[in-house]
Amino acid sequence: MIQVSKLNGKKYFLNALYIESVEANPDTTITLTNGKKLVVLNTENEIIHSIHQFYQRINVLGTQHNQEDDDEE
Fold it and tell me: What is the DSSP annotation of 33-59?
């Protein structure tokens, strides 16, 4: 779950697995897989960052490592 804020400032949690797209028009609009659209105060980058963190927490993305990690082994 990620936390987002409605336009009135009220915070709520949204299951990130149901997010299909995030766009700014100019308000940030989240489109869910069922077609429902939500307009939130959070920026696109904040939402994308929250989604990325959520996926890592539930181990959908796994852990990332870079070339330097491979060189040390």
Answer: TTS-EEEESS-HHHHHHHHHHHHHHTT
How confident is residue 54, by pLDDT bands cut at 50, 70 and 90?
Answer: very high
Residues, the chain: 73
Alpha-carbon gap, residue 65 to 71, rounded angstroms = 11
d(CA 28, CA 26): 6
- Own/partner contacts of 58-67, CB < 8 Å, gap of 24 or more, are none
| Both tokens assigned to 12 | 């709520």
What is the distance between the alpha carbons of residues 16 and 3, in angstroms, rounded to a whole number?
9
Strand (E) or helix (H) holding 70:
helix 67-72
Q: What is the C-alpha to C-alpha distance for residues 20 and 7, in angstroms, rounded to an integer? A: 20
Which amino acid is it at 18?
Y
